[in-house]
Every structure is written in structure tokens, then in C-alpha cells.
Design brief:
Belongs to the krueppel C2H2-type zinc-finger protein family. The protein has 239 residues and is mainly α. Helices cover 48% and strands 12% of the residues. Strands 1-2 form a two-stranded antiparallel sheet. A two-stranded antiparallel sheet has the order 3-4. Strand 5 and strand 6 form a beta hairpin. Helix 1 (2-19) crosses helix 2 (26-37).
Length: 239
């Protein structure tokens, strides 16, 4: 007991020198000591990652390897291996968004979602596509982009059967079946079902004609107009 007390006093003394904190229990002093020394004496036998606490941190981590998910959300039934992950998930059901972006004011329910969002403001694109070299600010955006290279089209339209590689493209396509035209032209009031169609239409109001015929030099405001001209007058199909 005498030597154990000396060891405790030594740990407390070191803790005071490092951060000035004092502790009544040896366990608390030891844990604070490990914070300063970065000692992690409890390795995971499965993956080798080490932890400073055995009963709490290491034990929770090991559940990831067993596949156990003992923490269940009473709202939706989804289960989690970590109590802290469940707590973060439950915020989604409350509608709370306690993590605001200091740059634009937009708020998020998850700290991790805020962190991913903030990359947009830095202009960084840390996720490159190994296939074509194009980079993205979000890992999820990269994943959606990579589907283009596989040729897969996993999003079918239930109305007509046409399939798409992107969920967002399917959503835009489905508007065609509803007859909705949510994109009005501020210049003339004409509305369109697709934002891209509106953009092409707006060129008419600017007077620009960015599509020249390589055969005769005549220019057009719409690519479709150029194609019709080439077939009718210049006998050349736009490539």
C-alpha cells in the first residue's frame, strides 16, 4: 500500500506539472496522466488499435468487430454498436440542427455532416476519381460520379422504364411525367420542366448565338436549331 501510494503521489505530481489538475482517486489521476503521455496500454486483438481505457473505450470498440448493435432507437428501430452513435442518430428524429456553419449559417443535425459541408467553403476537393482524375469535395458525390464509369443505371423510372445512373437525374426526369413546369423564365414568363431547358431558352433573350455552322458560318442560339439547319441546308449532321 505504501508503494502504491507513492506511485499515486508521483502520478498526481506529474499531472499537476502538466496541467495543474488534482485528483482524489488514483484511477482519475492515472487516466489524466495517460492523456499527457498518450499512453494506450489496451490494444484490440482484432485490429491492433490501442486505447487508454479498457472497460469503456476498448470494450465499445470491440463491438464493431463482433457486429453487435445493442443500442436500439425506440423511434425507428435502427440499432447501433455505440451508445454515442445512437445519441447522435436520435437528434434526427427531433428535427434539431444544433451545428451551424459559421460561414453561411446553414445548420446540421450531425457534427460530421457540418464538417463535410464546410469543405465546400474552402474549395478543397480531396476526393479524386481514379478513373478520370476529376475531384470532388464530398465522398458521396465521388461515389455517385463513379457509377458513370461502370455504365450502371440503377435508378429506373417506374412510369416509363427508362433508367438513370444518378438518382438526381431520375428525379428531374420524373417531372416530365407530372406535367409540372417549375422553372419559369423571368424575362418572358414561359415555364419549363427542366432547369437545363430554361438555361438554353434564356440564351434567346440575350441575343447570343454560340452555335456556328462550320459549313456556312451562320450562327444559332440553340444547338437543336443548328442541327436542323445542317441537315436541311448543309447536309451535315452535327457531331
Amino acid at each position: 500500500a505504501y508503494f502504491a501510494n507513492l506511485d499515486f503521489q508521483s502520478t498526481v505530481s506529474l499531472g499537476k506539472k502538466k496541467c495543474g489538475k488534482s485528483f482524489r482517486r488514483q484511477q482519475d489521476a492515472t487516466m489524466q496522466h495517460r492523456v499527457h503521455t498518450q499512453e494506450k496500454p489496451y490494444p484490440c486483438q482484432e485490429c491492433g488499435k490501442s486505447f487508454s481505457r479498457q472497460q469503456s473505450t476498448l470494450t465499445r470498440h470491440q463491438m464493431l468487430h463482433t457486429g453487435q448493435k445493442p443500442h436500439c432507437c425506440q423511434e425507428c428501430g435502427k440499432s447501433f454498436s455505440q451508445r454515442s452513435t445512437l445519441s447522435r442518430h436520435q437528434i434526427l428524429h427531433t428535427g434539431q440542427k444544433p451545428y451551424p456553419c459559421q460561414e453561411c449559417g446553414k445548420s446540421f443535425s450531425q457534427r460530421s455532416t457540418l464538417s463535410r459541408h464546410q469543405i465546400l467553403h474552402t474549395g478543397q476537393k480531396p476526393y479524386p476519381c481514379q478513373e478520370c482524375g476529376k475531384s470532388f469535395s464530398q465522398r458521396s458525390t465521388l461515389s455517385r460520379h463513379q457509377i458513370l464509369h461502370t455504365g450502371q443505371k440503377p435508378y429506373p423510372c417506374q412510369e416509363c422504364g427508362k433508367s438513370f445512373s444518378q438518382r438526381s437525374t431520375l428525379s428531374r426526369h420524373q417531372i416530365l411525367h407530372t406535367g409540372q413546369k417549375p422553372y419559369p423564365c423571368q424575362e418572358c414568363g414561359k415555364s419549363f420542366s427542366q432547369r437545363s431547358t430554361l438555361s438554353r431558352h434564356q440564351i434567346l433573350h440575350t441575343g447570343q448565338k454560340p452555335y456556328p455552322c462550320q459549313e456556312c458560318g451562320k450562327s444559332f442560339s440553340q444547338r437543336g436549331h443548328l442541327a436542323r439547319h445542317q441537315i436541311k441546308n448543309c447536309k451535315q449532321v452535327l457531331t
